[in-house]
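Morning. Coffee machine broken again, so started the prediction first thing and wrote up yesterday's gels while waiting. Chain of 482 residues, entered below exactly as on the submission form.
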Amino acid sequence: MLPPFRDQTEHATFTLWANRHIWLYGCDLESEWRQASEEGRDLRTVAAEFTRLRGTEPTTDYLEKLISGRRDLKWFERALALTERVQKLPLRRDYVYVEPSDLPGIRAARGCGPLVPRWRGSKAAFANRARGGFLGRVGGCMLGKPFEGVDRASIRMYAEGTGNWPLQTYQRQPTAAELRRILKRKPLRPLKSWQLTFYINLCDGFPSDDDINYTVLGMEVMRRHGAGFTPLDMASLWIQQLPILATCTAERAAYRNFIEGWLPPHSATRHNPYREWIGAQIRADFFGYAAPGEPARAAEWAWRDASISHVRNGIYGEMWLAAMLAAAYVLNDWPAIIRAGLAQVPRRSRLHAGIEHILALHDAGVPHEEVIDGIHREWNELTTHGWVHTISNAEVVVAALLYGGDDYGTTIAHAVAAGFDTDCNGATAGSLWGVRHGEKALPKRWLTPLRNKMKTNLAAYPELPLDEMADKIVAVAESVRR
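Came back before lunch.
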């Protein structure tokens, strides 16, 4: 329920605030409808209520209309009640997917994958690979960060306008003349002012970013609690270390639930229409770094983390990526690594089907750009749901790995140039490449501009040398290896 209000003005002020910070309050009915439909809910009994409430959703003129008596005070209460009803609806009879969220159910629904041998490398070799993953993740994230929220066509306009197409290096700030020429081409989503000034040579090292925050949180939960950490341990660590506004979508909804006393797994479903979005997938990396050659172990750790904020394919995305990273220590080709990850998620899930489709296109010799075109036909990146969904972005990462020519720069460039969630996909592709090939193989030109500096939003690690954080990653990962 909503808190009590003294008068209409106080209620209206809250409503406007909540609507502008919608990730916090979970009343995004458009996303809830899409999410519930895709996860197979039988929505016939609530369709009329969805239509009515979506047609009267508060806008920026809400305060004026409310005070004049022309707007229903109960919109938010009804919207929240509707999202709670959705959680109790059965699945449609024609729904073909089998998508449990509990760990035993996921394990029972898995298929088969390639044989993954145990890691038998030296301590130095392990450090090279784990550091490669972390530093590769940082570089890929940095390439994609200026383009976050920018569509595929507009990314190309800005990159071409500054002589950086195909993407070969970190995007620089356009000159005034270049910017005028770019804007004449009418990019659909022009870069915002902070993105235009996000030139690597003007940055004080790597800035704080959620894609790296969560990698460090994965390390920190194991540093404090060891390999036996629980979902509640991770939830508690968020509250201690992570400011709520450093979270997005499903993570912010789960954080709100923690504060209100809803613990895992209820924190993942209560008023959380973003429960299958990409947030968990970007939290997988440390669990893969710490489990060389053990994809099942990495996937279990990832489940413990993902289950506090996500369900179904949102969970599978993190399990798949953690398992791939674990397999990348010991397998030598991308299709095998990708399938080793898929072996840890339900074989009749939407994520499994989407990734298998990209693998089949690659096997059939379909060119990379045609593959990306197909992803864009399936997922509309101009809607937030399509832009940051787990599956759309997982498909982009798979395509980047398969068509990257085993070259770091090309791989992360493919992941970013495809659009969708650019910094997340650049980071994920870079992390996988780095684990497979190691720090020594990473081209220095992607690391030197960062000046060995990084920041996070975490209370324990506000700023420190990049090398020092990589050393911490290795030390904690080494401590939990069997």
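The first strand starts at residue 453 and ends at 455. Going to sketch it on the whiteboard this afternoon.
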